[in-house]
Amino acid sequence: MLSGYTERESLDRVFPPSHQFLSKPCPKDVLVSTITNALNSRNLLRGTGLRALVGSITRLPSLPEIYRQVASEIAKDEPSMERLGAIIGQDVAMTARLLKLVNSPFFGMTRKILSPVQAVNLVGINYLQSLIMACATFDSCEVSIPGYSLRRLMEHSLRTSCASAQIAALEGVAAEARDEYMTAGLLHDIGKLVLATNLPEAYARIIATVQREPRPVHEVEMEVLGATHAEMGAYLLRLWGLSDSVVDAALLHHAPCTIEPSLSPSLAVYCANVLDRELVVINPGYHRPAIDDVYLQRSGLAPRLEAWRAGLEKICRRVEGDEAQDSHS
User: Fold this and answer.
1) Sign of the CA dihedral 294, 299, 300, 302?
2) Least confident interval from 32-46, 197-211, 235-249
3) What is the pTM of this model?
4) How many Å apart are CA 234 and CA 190, to the nearest integer?
5) What would the pLDDT profile of 56-113 be if each residue is shown by its tens digit?
6) I need a surface site. Which of 108, 135, 208, 263 has the fewest CB within 10 A?
7) Nearest-CA neighbor of 143 among 99, 202, 101, 219?
């Protein structure tokens, strides 16, 4: 949505059905990029299964206002940490949610983070923006499906995010480039939220099937819905204007044979996702994926797998220790 309105009442009328909002005057490169992303979203719909699935979705999540304000500040030539902290601080619930997350053992902070400004400085502008996106999307979803937990899905997303960034760090990726890896890991399963929220009866059948039979969720999704959460998530992330690498990581995290055999967010998220399913067993009867050894050998990174696994084990021990402490407090 491109609009010259700035009044709150006008914006409130526009935001609910809009996935991206651009204010006038809008820089030419931003407008071109936004239109390109929208057209690329349509390209994802070439498969008849996903096109039919999107047609059955009554409402896709929209980006929250606080995300738009943060994005607007970040887009400035000289974004201010203080202004970003003030923007986030206006939303008390979001501030509490973000501070709880960044102080959680997932991030392994050595000191307690007490304010949004501290969070921005320590986690990074771009990743904090992605955390806002994820928190708002999870909080807006209501799912009541037996055996399905949004809390566990969020925890898996956080572990995958941190593990993806750790893989990048272990392989020498510069600190400023790791945000892409963290964001890709955080949002890789967002398609599950869309499907479970909009199609609860069908998704309940999918969950019941994978509880009864040791089959991958995406395989049963394809059988029941004609498309998977990976495709649905990629479509939504493309609509939201996320980068190609983040969209690709969501789309390909169950299809390593289609990922370029070299270090990238897609490779890191694929490996982090599988390793997390290996190390964190929710139900012993569930299907447990394994790393595609042939693909990893082609990438030349197979010898690094044990180091990556050790990194995720460290994250899991931190989380388990924190949970044990909470249970005794």
Assistant:
1) negative
2) 32-46
3) 0.84
4) 9
5) 787 778 788 888 899 888 888 888 888 988 999 999 888 998 999 889 888 887 788 9
6) 108
7) 202
Joined tokens for residue 109 = 């902070």
> Which residue intervals of 141-189 are DSSP H helices?
150-170, 178-187
* DSSP secondary structure letters along 70-109: HHHHHTSSS--HHHHHHHHHT-HHHHHHHHHHHTSTTT--
**Spatial contact of 88 and 131, defined as CB atoms under 8 Å apart:** no
> Residue 99 has which token pair?
């501070």
Q: Which residues face 2 on adjacent strands?
A: 22
One-letter amino acid identity for 233?
A: G
In whole angstroms, what separates CA 144 from the centre of its chain?
Answer: 21
Domains defined for the chain, CATH in brackets: 65-140 (no CATH), 143-315 (1.10.3210.10)
Prior bond to 105 cis, omega within 30? no
Q: How far is CA 208 from the centre of its chain?
A: 24
Mean pLDDT of 242-250: 93
Q: 3-state DSSP call for residue 22?
A: strand
